[in-house]
Specification:
This protein is mainly α. The chain has two domains: about 90 residues, Rna Polymerase Sigma Factor, Chain: A, CATH 1.10.1740; about 80 residues, Orthogonal Bundle (Arc Repressor Mutant, subunit A), CATH 1.10.10. About 75% of the residues lie in helices and about 0% in strands. The chain contains ten helices and no strands.
Length: about 200
């Protein structure tokens, strides 16, 4: 059991404020980045974060069934983002948000000069844009937030095996597209590594 899971149990059992704070600090940046990557505005993401952690705090007595706090937080945060955005834009559903799931790649400028950096960044974005929105989201959840297949499945509301297959197909599609475009295998590796930054 990881340290966050231990703090989750402490918070559930004793209402431990320090454990709640550790859970918050451990997840807040990843959740915010995830919301931005889904295409939501910063203010909506901030509001959704506040609502998510407030709900977590006040409903802790009803959450003893939650074993994986990370997957649970990503899932309720995503739903809260959609709910908040619906108030501003009536008639849109979750599919319209997954259509705009961009992944912006940041590359350390001191590793490569500016010209090469821009050229590689464009190739990496082209590679990532060859994926479907669902594939980009699963790649983001795996490589940028470090979620496991089971956690990804919980966030996306699919079976673990489906999450595994979706990620596998995304990586295969990246490989195929990279070879068709005659991008070196190193660029594909660089694409995945850049997601980790």
């Amino acid at each position: 059991m990881g340290s966050v899971d231990i703090h989750w149990r402490k918070f559930l059992e004793n209402g431990d404020e320090q454990s709640f704070s550790i859970i918050y600090n451990h997840h807040v940046d990843d959740l915010f980045s995830y919301g931005i990557s889904l295409g939501f505005q910063k203010e909506v993401c901030k509001d959704a974060l506040q609502d998510t952690f407030y709900k977590l705090y006040i409903t802790k007595e009803k959450l003893h069934h939650v074993e994986n706090i990370t997957a649970y937080l990503f899932s309720i945060f995503k739903h809260r983002l959609i709910d908040l955005n619906r108030k501003n834009r009536s008639g849109e559903n979750i599919e319209s948000y997954t259509e705009s799931f961009p992944i912006h790649v940041s590359i350390l400028e001191d590793m490569i000069d500016m010209e090469n950096s821009e050229r590689i960044r464009k190739k990496v974005e082209t590679l990532l844009n060859s994926l479907t929105p669902n594939q980009r989201e699963v790649v983001y959840l795996k490589y940028m937030t470090g979620l496991q297949h089971k956690e990804i499945a919980e966030v996306l509301g699919i079976h673990e095996e489906s999450a595994r297959k979706l990620l596998y197909r995304a990586i295969e599609k990246l490989r195929k597209y990279a070879s068709e475009e005659k991008y070196p295998e190193k660029l594909l590796l660089f694409t995945l590594l850049s997601l980790l930054q």
